[in-house]
Here is the input.
Amino acid sequence: MCGRYTLSSTPAQINVRFEVTVDPAWKPSYNVAPGTQVLMVRTDAESGERTSESAYWGFTPAWLRPDRRAPRPINARSEGVASKPMFRNAFARRRCIVPADGFYEWKMLDHGKQPWLIRLRDGDVFGFAAIYEPGNETTDNRPSCAILTTEANSTMRRIHARMPVIIEPVDYQRWLQTEQTKAAAIESLLRPYRPDDLVAHPVSARVNSVRNNDADLLRPVAGA
Here is the structure.
């Protein structure tokens, strides 16, 4: 799964990678958590242009009323996203990218869970495959999103059985196009990322608390 990630890249770096214009006031985060506002890149259905905006991390369908308690998934398994009733319409028509430059995963050890940070080998910003729902009353009219996951590649497998889907830059346009509604045409993009292009190292358990959000969270520590 993907339950925490980092986006410490500057708005200028994000603009270049995703061909959008991010608000210059956008702040870096070293511990992005569920239930918070995240950066989302999508294609505007009317203009056909890419746009970036803030979204609530926790998929919230329009039928979920503010007074109703129900799960707001932060992840969706890519293996069933095209057919699962909660996600299938968004997968067909409302795909987006969530920019990141690292993500955390927890490895089970005899003494407990050890957090690891996984990044691209070159340290560049990348994009998670995601789906979104338009804003509604439950989300204060802000869009909401979920990140897609897939089986782990060989780099990730020693840490966890699942990993987020990372979209190759060459595939951004195909993933974001709003007119493509046939699952078979885009499901081929939902694959584990190239293992040799990822690096991973253990980090401090400080990342466990969402109150901690500083660059020291990225530093390697001794771990298994």
User: Anything to note?
Assistant: The mean pLDDT is 93. Residues 160 and 184 are 27 Å apart (CA to CA). The two ends are 20 Å apart (CA to CA). The longest helix spans residues 11-18.
